[in-house]
Amino acid sequence: MTGLATASAVTATGDGTYRADLSPGWEVWGPQGGYLASVALRAAGVATGRARPASINAHFVGAGASGPVDIGVEINRATKVGTSATVRVTQTSDRGERLLLTALVWGVDGDLPGLEHQVETLPIEVMSPDELPNMTTLMAGRGEAPHPFWSNLEQRPLHWVEDWDSRPPSAPMNQCWFRFVDGETHDDPWLDACRSLVVLDLEGWGAATRPHVGELDHF
Hints:
alpha+beta
């Protein structure tokens, strides 16, 4: 297992160009989407030189593989407090160069003034992670080899569906505790945002499919 900080690291190769080595330890069929976006975000952080990311809008346009990728970052606009950048992640194989991801990123300075507010929401009573079994326990005995990616996270779902194929329709929601198991600590806002990207990319499809039963392979 390679921690996210090392697995998403980028190296400058020129003016606005970078290289990264996608780790096989972060594969789900291929490089997990949030992990791939993390590599793009790290490159944008270096290129913009800003204190922290404000936003990323990523389009996944090609399936990649573990191994080297090239990253190009173009600065669209730089203001007194923020920089907009376009990031392109490509991979070259015996079939030529393939675009894997393109993203728009805003990086901003720290401690910017702005609106502050707090919106009260109804409290949601949930069980603590210590009260819930982890995915290793829940999947035991199924004979399914997990993808390498799952060795990086500990998951404790709040609502476990034992028989997915025979489940009734339910609300489009997933609730789960996540913990990165690399034990890394850091104070880099760009890397901290990468952790959020990895988790955000996981839960969308699982939540969206809960109301829909039957064969979904054609989507």
